Amino acid sequence: MRPPRAETRAEAARLVARFEAAGARGVDCGILQPADTLLDLYGEDIRARVYTTHDPLRGEQMLRPDFTVPVVQMHMAEGAEPARYTYAGEVFRRQEDDPERASEYIQVGYEVFDRADPAGAEAEVFALFSEALAPLSLRAATGDIGILTAAVQGLKTTERRKAALLRHIWRPRRFRQLIERFAGRAPVPPARLALLNDPDPMAHAGPMIGLRSEEEILARIAALKEDAAAPPLAPEEVEGLDAVLAVRDACPAAEERLRAIARDLPAIAPAVERLAARLEALARRGVDVARLDFEASYGRTSMEYYDGFVFGFYAEGRDLPPVASGGRYDALTRQLGQGAEIPAVGGVIRPGLTLALGGAA
Q1: 306 annotated to bind ligand
Q2: Is 111 annotated as belonging to a binding site?
Q3: Is residue 310 part of a domain?
Q4: Residue 304, phi then psi, degrees to nearest 5
Q5: Residue 110 marked ligand-binding
Q6: Was 68 annotated as part of a binding site?
Q7: Where are the beta strands (DSSP E) in 7-51?
Q8: Which of 263, 279, 294, 325 has its CA 20 to 30 A from that of 32?
Q9: How many structural domains are present in the chain?
Q10: How would you list the strands of the sheet with 59-63, edge to edge?
């Protein structure tokens, strides 16, 4: 049973006041957001998860799916640094796969834009959330998308292949299919094989129908041929990726395992050092990192704009979405900053869930 809206708003106000006491400035964002920004970031796939409408003057609009994108836009356009923001309001998500989940709910957030001490900022956000949610006895999970990203960027393969893998890090099944194909383990589909072996593929083409020009089609065929000629991923590199993805342990043990993997996969070493710095900063904030879970794959299905540290808080034994989640999103500031960028980390809490579970302090 969902708490009454008035109670949820009061709980949201209490959380916002807590974040303001930590130094955040309260901000608000429009419920209607320009669709082109979100489509540029996430592609057409986002339409399956959001509500859209059309305005005769402003064009296609989307009901706000979260606050992070508009807050980043606001900060990059007019914010001073360092900066801390908090907010509360409705967000809207389509739930066609799970009609029992709320498609409209209130979200409270805390965001930090600070380039001086990235590890300290991550520890600050996580510790604030952990303290606010402590009365609920939730399970905390952490991960780091940056470690897997570094592993992909360090592969000895073409830039085109690496770009494809990076694009699909958030789609684990497609990511695995690409790994199998690039490693030469998956058979080439017959239609593609016929295309690659055809010396003049456009000779048998019918009339040009659709939006792609002949030049675009030829460029795509050339890219497929270039990919087919590239050597397969080395078995040891695939094993290294699999080893990274398999890391799931308490944070200190996970760090130790990743350091061992870095001896054979040196591209991840800087990301592992960032993990170590974060654990030290968390310990200084009073977080018991020895009991904190780390999973290298965590966040890959639901946190598309995060590119480093990720975290979530869950009610064990309850069929509920995360009560809170967040992470680092430096790349998002680059995409929305028109040439400017700043390290940024933040997270959101669902006050309706904290009330349903007993209320945060």
Answers
A1: yes
A2: yes
A3: no
A4: -65, -30
A5: no
A6: yes
A7: 25-26, 32-34
A8: 325
A9: 2
A10: 32-34, 59-63, 52-55
338 has binding-site annotation: no
Answer yes or no: is 301 a known binding residue.
Answer: no
pTM of the predicted structure, to 2 decimals: 0.87
pLDDT mean across residues, the chain: 87
Annotated binding residue at 66? yes
Torsion from C-alpha of 292, 296, 300, 301, nearest 10 degrees: -60
Would you state the structure tokens that stand for residue 316, as one six-digit string? 């064990």
305 annotated ligand-binding residue: yes
Domain that holds residue 200: 157-233
Of the candidates 115, 92, 138, the residue with the CA atom closest to the CA atom of residue 315: 138
45 lies in some domain: yes
* Residue 293 burial class via C-beta count within 10 angstroms: exposed 0-12, middle 13-18, buried 19 and up: middle
217 lies in the same domain as 164 = yes
Task: State whether the Cα torsion 221-223-226-228 is positive or negative.
Answer: negative
- The structure tokens 């389509």 sit at 94
pLDDT tens track for 306-356: 899 999 999 988 888 899 999 999 988 988 887 788 999 999 999 999 999
**104 marked as part of a ligand binding site:** no
Both 91 and 172 in one domain: the answer is no
In-domain check, residue 300: no
**How far is C-alpha 285 from the chain's CA centre?**
25
